[in-house]
Amino acid sequence: MPSQRSISEAEKLAAEKLGDIPLRRDQMAAVANIHRAASAVRQHLENSVLRGSDLTWTAFVVLWVVWVWGESETRHVAEEAGISKGTLTGVSRTLESRGLLRRSGHPTDGRLVLLALTEEGEDFMRRVFPAFNEEEAFVTARLSDAECRGLADGLRRVVLQIEEEGEDRRKSLLNGAGPSPRRSGRRPKG
Q1: What are the distances in angstroms from CA 153 to CA 36, 58, 134?
Q2: d(CA 155, CA 106)
Q3: Which of 21, 39, 161, 190 has CA 20 to 30 A from 101's CA?
Q4: Three-class SS of residue 72?
Q5: What is the β-pairing status of strands 72-73 and 113-117?
Q6: Helix (H) or strand (E) holding 101
């Protein structure tokens, strides 16, 4: 379901609200549109191809990560999928109950859990991913192939900036303080 306001309306309202505050507006627009595009694409894919497979975006991403990376430790899957280990536990149990994913103990460290696709999971991804990719083509239909490559390259550079420089920047902004633990909507005590 798309946002109540169009992207043009949102941009106009933001410009009015921010007025003459000195900001780096092009960078603000880039980050805002990364967020808006990611949300719009996720909603479209969940409400189209993934709905037909009775999958959430998060469940599909978990399947994708394990499909591409092969058998992996849960902590690596959670990190790559951008979710907490607690969220992964629920998602992986659901996928396991559907016969798509297999959870097993690590052969040398009993504290670790490994995830792998079952044969049914492999077949599922080979069958569903082409339909998913058709929707990727749909959501990028207003871009040429060269523009898609340019966009992908630009977004890759955004990710690399954060991967390579983000931790130092975070420490400098927070005087070396550690990152906040992930919270599930809870407010800090105090």
Answers
A1: 18, 24, 21
A2: 35
A3: 39
A4: strand
A5: antiparallel
A6: strand 101-105
Region of 24 please: left (phi>0), alpha (psi -120 to 50) or beta. Answer: beta
Would residue 54 be called left, alpha or beta, if left means φ above 0 and alpha means ψ between -120 and 50 degrees? left
As to burial, measured by CB atoms within 10 angstroms (0-12 exposed, 13-18 middle, 19+ buried), residue 1 is: exposed
Evaluate whether 14 touches 32 at the Cβ level (below 8 Å): yes
CA–CA separation, 170 vs 134, rounded Å?
38
Q: What tokens does 83 get? A: 């979710």
Token pair 């993934």 in the structure block, residue: 50
Q: Shortest CA distance to 115 belongs to which of 161, 83, 142?
A: 83
Runs of H (alpha helix) within 48-118: 49-52, 57-69, 74-81, 85-97
Can you list the pairs that 140-148 forms with residues at least 24 positions away whose Cβ atoms lie under 8 Å? none
pTM of this prediction exceeds 0.90: no
Distance of alpha carbon 122 from alpha carbon 100, whole angstroms: 8
Q: What is the largest distance, in Å, between two alpha-carbon atoms of the chain?
A: 60
Q: Per residue in 9-23, pLDDT tens?
A: 777 777 776 777 777
Helical pair 25-47 and 145-173, crossing angle rounded to 10 deg:
120
Q: Within 10 Å of residue 66's Cβ, how many Cβ atoms? A: 27
Determine contact, residues 101/95, Cβ cutoff 8 Å. yes
